[in-house]
Amino acid sequence: MTSAILSALNILTRPACGPDAQSSQQQVLLAALEANRTLLLQRLQTESSLEEVRRLREEVKVEAGWFCSDTEDVTWSFVQECLLLLLALTRHLSEELERFQQTPPPPAARHRTPELAPPLPPDILSVAQQKTLGAALQFVVSLGLCPYLSPGVGIPLGRRFTFGALVEKLVHGGAEPAGGRRLLTTTNVLLQLTELSSLATLVFTRHLGDVMAALCQLGYQPHREDKSIKPLTVEECRSCKEALRKLLAKVYQPIVVKELLILQGGPKQVENTARAGLGSAPAWLRRLCGQLLSERLMQPNGVQAVVRAVLEGGTGGDSDWRKCDAVARILVACPQQSTSADAYFRNICPQILELMHFKDKLTAQQFQRVATRAALSIVQERSSFGQQFLLRPLLAALQRCTTPSSQYVFPIWVVGNSPSVSLLEALEEVLPVVFTLFCFTKKNVSHLRAPCQEILVWYLSHAESSAGLSMIRQLSGLEEQKNEVAAGFLFTPGSDGGARLVCRGSSSDEDDELYEKLSGEQWRLECLMQILSELKDSDLPGDFFLELLQELTSWAAAADDEEKMDEEQPDVSAMTLLEVEQHLLGGAERRAQKVVLLQVLAVMVESLQHTELLRRTSQVVDFMVTLLQRACVGLDQASPPRVGNPVESQTLSMGMGLVATMLSGPQVSADDYSSMSKLLPPLQALSQQHPDVFIQELASNLRAVIATHGAFRPENLNTTAGSSSRNPESTANDISGAKTPVNKLPASSAGSTRKPTSDPPSKPFCDWLLEACDPDVPTRAFALRVLNQKVHHRDPEAVQNQEKVLTLFLENLEHEDSFIYLSAIQGLAALADSYPDRILERLLKDFQLGPSLSSSDRQRCLETRLKLGEVLMRASRAMGDLAPHLGRPLLGVFLQGTRDPDQTVRASSLSNLGELCQRMDYSLGPLAQELSSCLTALIKTEKEAEVRRAAVHVIAQLLRGLSDKTTQVLSEVLLDLYRALKLVLRSDPDEVAVLHAQLALEELDDVMRRFIFPEQKLEKKIVVLP
């Protein structure tokens, strides 16, 4: 029956025969419609296969009060036949589906296996049947619905396809007296079709916008005062409104929003302008669509529906950015239908935050754009609502540490990058928690590290200087922290690289608790320094540094008073217990605050470069003001301990030399002199009260230059600046006779200088040999370094005395001070690199048999052999391409060393063996069997875990060094090495050895993958034929 009805529809909608050449397109179309309708009626009467269709059609026709058999309109007659057949199909499918649902399944179906497909319901149509039904629906909509829509309602047919323009000329529905009735008839029939799910899919996927436009016009269009047109009754209008409401509630909301936006039309067009993509809709329709869109927006998940309607199908390009901004503007505007702005934003803001929780990458990116722009717009335009419904809920979870909200804070604050007072104040409350989370992520691998760092850097870059300094003081521990993670809790690794908050376990050992606390504070300071180092274009680190120096100076000025207070014994008998406790705690708190200040200063000077601390001239001047003020403390009392401190005197002289260097610059502006005027009071105090004559004269000269803005400049100012940084004591004696030009001081936050890395001072070679035997450790170490440089540069005297230098290095190799024996190790490595033939033979002999010098200490023989092993390892690294030629003797000694009685020598030999093997390349081929036997035997039989680790590590280094050559060099032993590694992985109790085995197997896996699946290269070969 279904096939028969669809066959009748096919007769009605099939293309006509070839058109007459003398007929117009309209005449051809009308003739085709009339011919198909006549053919259908004829075949319904004559063919027995369509008898059931004719019967069902007559039943529907009797019930249809809208059918008119005597109409002269060909198109409407054709549409009526289509409607009758569609209703007949709907009735038949409904009856068949009801019968299918009521019929119990057959016994065979009750025992159906899970793999067996269930029986298909009768309303399922084939692809060909859906194509026929779709054609019929298109005829109905094009001839029976769209022509009767008012101008501006829906998209005109002429803008959809070429056939639509022909239909517009053929059917003038707006001028028909019965146009409204025909539109109502077609719409009601289409709505009846949608009651069946299989037919509703075809209607809504292709003609939803047309049905919505028809319902809007039938239910809400104002009636025109035209007596020739009979308006719809109130009941009919009410039913259309109800049908529209049910339709909008039933369909997928993003599609509804999209269709409503299309119905609302584009902006009003000026006459005689180019045709826009969307025409201008009537005012009543624009108001209606705006109201319906507002209702969609304010319902649950309405924000998501609007966003999906606008953004679905986007690719993330520039057009999507504009769409995101447009959606954000829509969300910020409170609709007139809302009862109040408070109720609207209370409903919308949580939905905006939900847009940031999507997992799909492209969807999440687009939704976060909308959420970011909307949130920033609400905070800027509706600050009170933004604070109450957006920022507080978003940051509350971070304050409670219940969810990883930092990844949601990041797009709004950092990506949005629209700093405002409300955003900065809201972020300030949770910044300590973000910083604690950042410190935790620095110790682990976490995707939260980068967002936390960006949030901290963004706040410190955009906050006011006072707020930024206050926050840094809190994070560094100089001030009491607010809104910190609750005591007794700490972050631990969470799922997917996140973090979770857990209760801190109690420790019974007080020393462990103290160590954990101190190490945690040190780690927080190091993390804070990393944040400050990211502030490339900010003066905040320098301002914080200067503030700490000023605080240190003020404490130095009050040090004497505090010492007197500490020395005075209070009258405890006249104090209560609370006062005594407060007195004692006050002193302890002051001392603890000083310790924290010094710790922060030390970490800053150690971690940050001078270019990050003192970026501007004014900051350098403020630094010098602090330095000079600290030097002036106690001058009036002439305290001998303070004045006589050589470190403070040298620091002061270097600082004044820095000022002199600044004044000697080629371009010193008036603003620079104005900023340096702050140096005048401390310079005057130093020139009058400092006990050092050199400091007094230099301070007086500097004060004169600054006060006169460079008009007065002493001749010896540049000389003084250069010499003061080198040796203030000697310079004070011959300040007037110095002629050396000024050298620019290496800028340093601590005022320290570095020795230039130039050639060693010119001394006779024999003097360096004598100093290398000096009992003074620094002198000997420096002489050894100089000899090392001379050997490295092939100094002629070093070449002539290489035997003496070798003996000297071997003797110092046994020294117990690390400065000495490390310098000797470097020197021996340089000798082996420069003269490998003779030096390596001597070193190998001593490593194998022990020190050969007569003065050697036999009790320290093992330690000396291990140091020689370090020398040989460095020599192996320096061989480079000469390793296959020079490495054969070393290889034999190292293999013998693997059988040494001492485990440390065995481990050292294996370590050197690994360094050498990865540079031997193809020359390892003849020794591969011996090397494999040695390593596999050690792995299987060695009892010491340290030696097994070294053996496995040799295999890893061997594979890493040979790389793609592995299959050629180790082809005979590769299987044995693989089995040895698998044995370690399965049964070795040492975790480090297992880790080395895993790394070696990964190297072997990479090698074999490249061997089996070589990289495909596109190459062109040019062959020259003979």
Automatic annotation (TrEMBL):
Positions of the RNA polymerase II assembly factor Rtp1 C-terminal domain: 768-882, 973-1006
Gene3D superfamilies tied to this protein: Leucine-rich Repeat Variant (1.25.10.10)
InterPro entries per record: ARM-like, ARM-type_fold, HEAT_TANGO6, Rtp1_C1, Rtp1_C2, TANGO6/Rtp1, TANGO6_N
Location of region: Disordered: 715-761
Domain TANGO6 HEAT repeat: 297-538
Biased composition (Polar residues): 716-734
Transmembrane segment boundaries: none
Annotated TANGO6 N-terminal domain residues: 3-296
Cross-referenced Pfam families: ARM_TANGO6, RTP1_C1, RTP1_C2, TANGO6_N
GO BP annotation list: protein secretion
Similarity-based family: Belongs to the Tango6 family.
Record protein name field: Transport and golgi organization 6 homolog (Drosophila)
Organism: Acanthochromis polyacanthus
